[in-house]
């Protein structure tokens, strides 16, 4: 634990915990911690309750593995969505970003990560077997691979493509309107919309 000269130990602990969040460095963590220190007790309690409720109530959908507080999730319950098209993404945040475009009306499958041998993440650590089961059900005609255009994302897409090809399903990839090395999370809606429109056979 980092120690900060002249800072009480409880505040130091909070700064250290906040600095573990993605995108939050030591200085940002200090600013957030001191902001919370100055905030009213009601504000800090509301934050604590929101975090606790999120951890208790939000889980993964048993069908697509998107985050939800009801199982199946809202997207899987939507009968107006096209069940014959399945978009495969790395994480739940990608679903949220793609939904903002308003361009896609099919179903989703969230892998919950990508293959990364360097970090010990193999196929058994992802929701790949569940994806295979969904394709084997016979209701899906097209699988859109929407993993990030990174080395890990491409490797995962190729692995899934090899796995699904024997089942006769059409496999497409989002068009190369997506910049190489970029995450879906940081891609604007227009670029994503064009990527959907120009998707190609994998």
Task: Describe the protein's architecture and organization.
With 202 residues, the protein is an alpha/beta fold. The chain folds into two domains: 49 residues, RecR Domain 1 (Helicase, Ruva Protein, domain 3); 124 residues, Dna Topoisomerase Vi A Subunit, Chain: A, domain 2. The chain is built from eight helices and seven strands; from the N terminus they run H-H-H-E-E-H-E-H-E-H-E-H-E-H-E. It has a five-stranded mixed beta sheet with strand order 4-3-5-6-7. Helix 5 links the parallel strand 3 and strand 4. Helix 5 crosses helix 8. It is elongated. The protein starts with 8 loop residues before the first helix and ends with a strand. The model has no long low-confidence stretch (mean pLDDT 91).
Domain count: the total is 2
Query: Which residues sit in consecutive blocks of at least 5 with pLDDT less than 50?
Result: none
Strand content: 5-15%
Structural class call reads alpha/beta
CATH class of the largest domain: Alpha Beta
The count of helical stretches stands at: 8
Strand order of the largest sheet: 4-3-5-6-7
Helix content: 40-55%
Radius of gyration: 20 Å
> What is the average per-residue confidence, as pLDDT, rounded to a whole number?
91
| Second rung of CATH, namely the architecture of the largest domain | 3-Layer(aba) Sandwich
Describe the global form: elongated
Q: Separation of termini?
A: 47 Å
Topology order in helix (H) and strand (E) letters? HHHEEHEHEHEHEHE
């Amino acid at each position: 634990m980092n120690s900060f000269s002249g800072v009480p130990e409880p505040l130091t602990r909070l700064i250290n915990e906040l600095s573990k969040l993605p995108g939050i460095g030591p200085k940002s963590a200090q600013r957030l911690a001191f902001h919370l220190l100055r905030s009213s007790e009601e504000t800090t309690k509301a934050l604590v309750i929101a975090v606790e409720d999120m951890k208790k109530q939000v889980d993964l959908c048993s069908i697509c593995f998107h985050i939800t507080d009801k199982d199946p999730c809202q997207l899987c319950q939507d009968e107006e969505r096209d069940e014959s098209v399945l978009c495969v993404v790395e994480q739940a945040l990608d679903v949220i970003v793609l939904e903002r475009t308003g361009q896609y009306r099919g179903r989703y499958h969230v892998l919950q990560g990508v293959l990364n041998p360097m970090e010990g993440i193999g196929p058994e650590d992802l929701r790949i077997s569940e994806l295979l089961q969904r394709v084997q059900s016979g209701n899906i005609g097209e699988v859109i691979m929407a993993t990030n255009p990174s080395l890990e994302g491409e490797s995962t897409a190729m692995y899934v493509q090899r796995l699904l090809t024997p089942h006769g399903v059409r496999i497409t990839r989002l068009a190369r309107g997506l910049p190489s090395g970029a995450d879906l999370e940081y891609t604007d809606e227009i670029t994503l919309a064009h990527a959907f429109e120009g998707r190609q056979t994998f």
